[in-house]
Structures are given as structure tokens and as C-alpha cells.
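Memo to structure team: turn this sequence into C-alpha cells by end of day. - J.P.
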Amino acid sequence: MSSLTEAGFWESSGAEDGIESGSGAKGPSSDSLASFSGDTGQLSVPLRRVLVQLLLGPVVDGRRHPVLWNHLLQDEAVVRSRLHEMFLELVVDRQQSVAFTRQVVSDDLDVPVLLRRAPLTFLESALLLFIRKRLTQADVDGERAVVDRNEIIDFLQTYERSGNSDKSRFDRQLSSAIEKARKLNWLSSLKNSEDRFEVSPTLKLLFTAEHIQALTKTYEDVLNHMSTDAASDGDNEVED
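Reply from structure team:
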């Protein structure tokens, strides 16, 4: 199952709104270069906020961070150059209004790894598969990709082992998987509803069709194995 555990993703610190608004900031205007005593930085405060959001991850989202998004587009070359100095690549999708970073990969250089990776559990990867497929179907139908908590739980429960004696633990794992997807901004709660979510279009950039095909094959094998085990258990009970 290496294909499930090798993937890693930015974990957000939850500070995006403060970065976007600059709430509580005092001192020079946002266009000033000097932002604190002894500051030797050469970027404006707005561009520094863009870089911080990209480093915190997982994305700069034009819908959630319109101010940051506009500054990013205005000075994309500068942001890209600064990220290259840290061996990071800037990925910008104007159609989806999102931007994020990737680790530079080079055959000619031993590149230090800066990105903090967030390995996925089995159920978190299963949830990723579910919402990524929902996003694909929504694109075909020309609709927003929306799922509710019960749909997610129904899908993930197919991976609960037969005869599981610790139901409460499995339920906690389900809730944790959903919360992880929200933390990584794969899912965002719809207005006035904590149990209905929109799937982030960013997933199309992060996980290609090839990634999803590999995940699908792995999880189909898991389900087939579980079905075989359940059938064997049933046979044993009859024989007894």
C-alpha cells in the first residue's frame, strides 16, 4: 500500500484569515516595504503575506483570499523567483483561481526538502478517492461538487471490517478523516451547514487521473480481500 502512504500534503495552521485581512496589524501601510523595526526585506507587505500563505499551505484560494490572490497575479514572477530560492515551484491555475507550491525535483541537484508532509491514513485516502471522483462527476454534469457527511460516512463504512468489536473507535476514525479533509481544504463547509461540503477544485491539480486510477485499483483489491475474508468466515460458521 505504498501508493497510499507515500503521498504527503501541506497541513494548514488555520491562520489564513489573519494573513488575508492583516487584522490587528499596526504601523506602515500595506504598500510600505519596511514593516517593523530593523526590517531589511525587499518585498511589500502584501507580497510577504502571499508568500507566508503559500508556505503555510495548502493553497492561496481566490475565493477565500481575494486580496492575496490579486497580489499574487500582479507580481507572480517575483513570488515564483522567491520560492525558487527555497527550491519550491509555484503552481497557478487561473481558471480555478488557486495557487500552491510543489517541491522542486532535480536529477542534477540534491534538493533540500522544505515541505512538511502529512501522511494519510487508510480511511483518509479512501475519503480522498471518494471526493475526487465526485469532483470528476460534477465537472461532467457542469455542477458544483457537493457532498454531505452521511454520504461520506456511508462510503467509508464499506471499509469497516466485518465483526468489528470497537465501533466507537471506527466512528472516531471516520470523524477524524473528515476533519483532516477540512483542515487540508479539500472540503469546505457550505454556508449555514456544517454537514454539507463543497469539494475543492484544487484536487484536480493535486491528484491526476493516473493517481486516482492507482488508488481505485488498490481499494478495489482491499474490498475484494475483505469480501473473501467475510465469505470464509461465513463458511466456517456453517461448518461448525
